[in-house]
Amino acid sequence: MSEKINTVDTKAPYGMIAILFIGAFVAILNETLLNIALPAIMQEFDVNATAVQWLSTGYMLINGILIPASAFFIQRFTDRKLFMTAMALFTLGTFLASIAPVFGVLLGARMIQAAGSAIMMPLLMNVMLTAFPVEKRGAAMGMFGLVMITAPAIGPTLSGWLIEHYSWRMLFDLVLPIAIITLILAAFKLKDVTPQRAIKLDVWSLVLSSIGFGGLLYGFSSAGEKGWDNILVYGTIIIGTLALITFILRQFRMAEPMLEFRIFKYPMFALSSTISIVISVAMFSAMILMPIYVQTIRGISPMDSGLLMLPGAIVMGIMSPITGKLFDKYGARSLAVIGLTITIVTTYYFSKIGMETAYTTLVLLYTLRMFGMSMVMMPVMTNGLNQLPAHNNPHGTAMNNTLQQVSGAIGSAVLITVMNNHTTAKAEALVAKTGAMSQQIMNEAMLDGITYTFLISTWIAAIALLLAFFIKRVKPNHTMPM
User: Fold this and answer.
1) Sign of torsion, CA 220 367 175 321?
2) Which of 5, 17, 31, 193 has the most Cβ atoms closer than 10 angstroms to its Cβ?
3) Which CDD domains does this UniProt record tie to the protein (predicted)?
4) What is the largest CA-CA distance in the chain?
């Protein structure tokens, strides 16, 4: 154990948490900032769409490999050392990206950035679980939700504005000074809160985890572009699945597993993880489908597309701390039921949009949907983590973050496939009816594919609502055998 640990009776380290918040915010923000800049990067470095997509796919893969290992890092190294290392890697990656003379350097810089950001989120969550007693965790995790939800939500809007007025390098130039200041503050202000244990890293577990989660993430994230019949897609999914099964079986045989799967014996943690997976899949529908609808079908500019989503991001930011306090008072079930009901209704209305749907209607629907989502994610996740004994917190946070990454990739792939298949079928039916192919027919077919996919998302969200009725308010059970 470390020489000194904060307990729930001591004052929560708000200064330290603020530093961690800033670090996590810029790390998550950087994930979504680059998406709108990809065409400009393709033009400057003369690379194709497949190559440039690795700036996003590679970032996600590094996260998928390192997040499962974060439970080991958090238990083995002090908070200060771990955050300083992560922030230093992120800062170095940001600097290299801002000056990258060739595409290879930019890609390598993104990988270095990802290596730093992958540790920040699990570390921040674990510090907050350790620093706050159960009855105050809702408010604390609500503030965490502010970072987790707002950063990726404002990313496209901010990116759209910067790309319109400056070079894509400004995306990194903006983040770099914040990263440097955070690193300097951490050097002087950061303390150690979580306990350490002298555990050893099982190399085979790391290898199997990397192949397993990395294979699944790559396979599913590539399916939308390459198609399910591509050997790279189904091959990496099969290899990833086999490696993941081997990894899980190995963890059950180990006294000190790298990632503890026995935590699923706690019923509320298992339920919260299941609900979070279902919500992640449903949530990605709007994030993927809305830009396609407003830009490709409606011809709305990228900047206005980003602005369409901004009120929803602001609402989520405002609601996160409020939801946290409501969770402390009323528990997760009532919040989840209300939030998911709003999400289902708004998602259903998205399945009814047409060629003439007003911009203000789209903004209102998207904002209401985000309002509903803000009442679900953090309360459900916090309720599940509350059932775990303190020594399993690193495993709980690592598991949640990993499952969100994987379910997000799977959800995106499935929804894109549903949309493409339905679009193709509709286009063929319209061509057979009219005898000619035109841009209007393609737009009509794509709109039909998008609205159908929103309808599927409505049913997916309905599954989460059904599960939410089984949520019970819990407190840590330290006696349950693991």
Assistant:
1) negative
2) 193
3) MFS_LmrB_MDR_like
4) 78
* One domain, residues 311 and 429: yes
Q: Which residue has the tokens 């190559």?
A: 51
* 283, 284, 286, 288: CA torsion to nearest 10: 170
Examine the domain organization and report whether 328 and 196 are in the same domain: no
- How many whole angstroms separate alpha carbon 132 and alpha carbon 6? 10
Q: What is the CATH number of the domain that holds 434?
A: 1.20.1250.20
> Does residue 158 share a domain with residue 224?
no
Give the position of tokens 């390192």: 66
Q: In a 3-state reduction of DSSP, which class is residue 77?
A: coil
Span 406-453, pLDDT tens digits: 887 788 778 888 888 888 888 888 888 777 777 788 888 889 989 999
The reply to whether 481 falls in a domain is: no
Q: Alpha-carbon distance 471 to 473, whole Å? A: 7
The 3-state DSSP class for residue 73 equals helix
Got the DSSP string for 192-224? Answer: --S--------HHHHHHHHHHHHHHHHHHHHHH
Is 351:451 a contact under the CB 8 Å cutoff?
Answer: yes
Residues in the chain: 482
State which of 184, 200, 216 marks the end of a domain.
Answer: 200
Q: Are 166 and 218 in a shared domain?
A: no
| Final residue belonging to a domain, choices 155, 173, 200 | 200
- Domain check: are 68 and 161 in the same one? yes
Q: What is the distance between the alpha carbons of residues 253 and 255, in angstroms, rounded to a whole number?
A: 7
What is the identity of the amino acid at 229?
A: D
CB atoms within 10 A of CB 237: 21
Query: CA 366, CA 377: separation in Å to the nearest integer?
Result: 17
Which one-letter DSSP state was computed for residue 242? H
Quick one: 270 and 207 in the same domain?
no
For 155-197, the pLDDT digits (tens) are 777 777 777 778 888 889 988 999 999 889 888 877 777 777 7
Domain that holds residue 178: 1-200
Residue 463 has pLDDT above 90, yes or no: yes
CB 362 within 8 A of CB 310: no
Is 118 within 8 Å of 62 (Cβ atoms)?
A: yes
Domain tally, the chain: 3
Does 235 lie in the same domain as 190? no
What is the pTM assigned to this prediction?
Answer: 0.78
Whole-angstrom Cα distance, residue 183 to residue 90? 10
Q: How far is CA 297 from CA 358, 433, 447, 458, 459, in A?
A: 13, 21, 7, 22, 25
